[in-house]
Amino acid sequence: MEYSGFHRYQHVWRNTAEMKRMIEQVTEETVLQAAYVHSLSWKASHTALCSPEFVALHTPERQAAYLRGEMKQGKRLFMLTDGEPVGVVTVWDDLIENLYVLPEKQQRGYGTLLLDFAIRQCAGVPTLWVLNTNAVAQRMYQKNGFRETGDTRALNDAVYEIEMVRQAEPE
Q1: Is the dihedral of CA 98, 48, 133, 137 positive or negative?
Q2: I want to staple 92 with a disulfide (CB 3.0 to 4.6 A). Which of 13, 31, 38, 75 is the partner?
């Protein structure tokens, strides 16, 4: 899948041809890269749920402002690169949020890599919220030890978030 505007953001990537797979904390210098990943991934996952006008608002520039706000609140934003940026995740104490992988890079283990990293960053029992419509993410979380708590948050009449926590590993 080709995304218009991709070339506009390549110039901010640092020597991406020489980079190996790594996860680094996002800084002001790399927030636009993270915002690009967040924007494309969010649009892909929300297109069926939101109006086209609302989806179109989620530009990399708008998502950069959103991510800066998240970081200003003390949330730590991380970006996975593998020659180029492919995914992002936010961790705040024991809460994992904003786990997004570029649509064309999904089903390659990047999401699990980001999730494993985020789990290790948590201060307590890793917790996250997932859309009831995102069965793929729910399965990934379950495969990685997360279980539903029974708590939900309604977003509208048909869409809600499901709280999941990671079970303690057996000793």
Answers
A1: negative
A2: 75
What dihedral angle (degrees, nearest 10) is formed by the CA atoms of 100, 104, 109, 113?
Answer: -30
Specify the DSSP class assigned to residue 17: G
Average pLDDT rounded to a whole number, residues 55-82: 96
Half-sphere exposure (Cβ direction) of 62: Cα atoms closer than 13 Å: 10
User: Can you tell me the distance from the alpha carbon of 25 to that of 38, in angstroms, rounded to the nearest whole number?
Assistant: 15
Write down the pLDDT at residue 167.
79
Question: CB of 62 within 8 A of CB of 69?
Answer: no
CB of 64 closer than 8 Å to CB of 40: no
What region, left, alpha or beta, does residue 25 occupy, with left being phi > 0 and alpha being psi -120 to 50 degrees?
Answer: beta
Q: 17-56: string of b/e by CB count within 10 Å (b at 16+)? A: eeeeeebeebeeebbbbbbbbbbbbbbbbbeeebeeeeee
Q: How does residue 10 score in pLDDT terms, banded at 50, 70 and 90?
A: very low
**Which amino acid is located at 64 in the chain?**
A
pLDDT for residue 169: 67
* C-alpha distance across the termini of the chain, in Å: 44
For residues 38 and 22, what is the distance between their CA atoms, to the nearest angstrom?
17
